[in-house]
Amino acid sequence: MLKNKDDIIKVLQSGGVIAYVTDTVWGLGCLPDNEKAVRKIYEIKKREAQKPLILMSNETYHLLNYVKPIPKIGQQLIKKYFPGALTIVTYKNENTPDYITSGMQTVGIRVPDNKVFQHICEIIPNHILATTSANLSHQPSAKTYEQALENMKGLADLIIEDYGYPAKGLESTVAGVMNNELRIFRQGAINIEI
Q1: Of 27, 88, 95, 189, which residue is most buried, by most CB within 10 angstroms?
Q2: Structural domain count of the chain
């Protein structure tokens, strides 16, 4: 499916930033262990330093390396809604750098339900991207390839087309599961029912 696999890997390994489709809106991401690349995302977006990035992958088990054991309620949500438009915020472990979480002890994790995004994660080192939406802060999220190009041309190092797997256009629901309590931080595409 992906025509430019080598370019994607090369850009990411050299500290670059890529824009890509997900099941919700377009994302902007880099390898999580590259602080320079993470800083570049903040610069591109003019994003406030206290706003953390999240971690996304094609498989839940890749993300489990970056968080403390997930409480039962979080596990139930993962079983029911991953892959999908749900971001789970839980306690991070020592593998998640502070520069991703803005110094917070929690991190958001998500597995988007989009074939192009999943294919990107399959081919990249460690299968994880530190990510946020592909737009300038306080501007609307990019919902199409054209909007992503408009927002990120000359800013992202690579903008990957959606190959006919478009974003649905509604942000993910963000749910916190610290201490086995459920808190909805942002109501998005998924209405949580347990």
Answers
A1: 88
A2: 1
